[in-house]
Please model this.
Amino acid sequence: MKDASNPLPWLAGRVVDQRFEELPANAVEKAKTFLLDTFGVGVAGCYGFRLDRIIKVAKSWGSGEEARVWVSGECLPAPAAAFVNAYQIHSLEFDCVNEDAVLHPFATILSAVMAYSERRSKQGRPVNGRDFLTAISMGVDVSIFLGKSATGPIRFFRPASAGGFGAVAAIGKLEGFDTDTLIRALGNQYGQTSGTLQPHVEGSPLLGMQVGFNSRAAIAACDFAEAGILGPSDVLTGQYGYFRLFENGEFDVEHGIRELQASFQIELMAHKPYPSGRLTHGVIDGLQRLMKSRGFARNDIAAIDVEVPQLVKRLVGRPDIPAPAPNYAKLCLPFVAGTYLEHGTVDVEHFIGDEMLQNPRTHAYASLVTVRQNDNPSHSAMAPLTVAVTLKSGETHSVYVEAVYGHPNNPLSREENLDKFWRCWRRADGMDMAAGEDLIERVDRLEAVEDVSDIATLLVRRTARPEF
Model:
């Protein structure tokens, strides 16, 4: 029975009871699509900001060879590997997102579940593809439930905070927790939950590290539960629960329940076609549509006016600055618009090095952009938005973007998804192209895979594959 005053028994019970056979075909297909996307993004993230130092610190957390760091191949305890791989996935701002919930659930969930699956394989208890797909799908549902139940403005970094709950749900599903144990494991996670938006404001790499903190915590939360160390139970709507503290008491769990009853949330994920904040993608889409349909060139533009929902204005409507840090630039709508106009696209290399970040032409184009807030009352809406361009001739053109490129209503095709995967794969020097082909094939037939930990072998450079 659903109880809006405490939805956790219903939510946990739904996870426990879900069977692979009851997942709709579209949910399974979307799970595979975004698994491949996330693996690719995680590989490309091997050049994340100061990753070598982050790995060095993670290696100091204890001995054990349970799971691999993607690409570089270090063998670490599962929680440490989950931390590093989560950072790699999110470090480029390239991982998939659920727009309505304002969070990237895959970075936290997949890094934790893959590390956990590697550890289980070494214990002689391999995780098969059917169970893996079911667990990932339910983990995404739990994360998105938290985001969609929130009704106020986002105050914490949900990909980290809500993502950690999803990771616990997925691991608990694989470990066969009953409803009460899963609830208490989520209580263990709540005690470790973190994720401030201050790194977002300042462009700090701690933003992606927070995803890692919660991924690492999810494995610990389940380990404690398995050992009989159980956390509190009323951690969502209790007196000091998640919704009252992290969401400032502004929540509607009945809406969240309706959303999960209507569809599996993995079916509503959006691609990020560009490695910048999803909230910046609307201006790229709008400019691309206008320049293609109206036939003007970048040098014809005198001004760009972008009217966006309040979430977009608040999080990426920040001013362009002369020498932005990479993370600041990726989350600055004017800079991203300037990058698109300068290069004709937006890609990973456009946020690397002073030559790109301080390019005077990019900043000149960025100076043409004005970001205004429209009258959309939603605190979580990323669209619709309007992009209006005034040309030097005095002509004006505008476009209303209802579903930004990558949205489920304007998705990447299979070919575009594969193109993005290969662009990510090739960014990591030394990655075997045959291994990339093998990875695609294994994800396509994942329900027939007997041990998903074998996938981790493909995510490591050939020269970095130790006996494991």
Remarks:
- The chain has 21 helices and six strands.
- The longest strand covers residues 301-308.
- Residues 129-149 form the longest helix (21 residues).
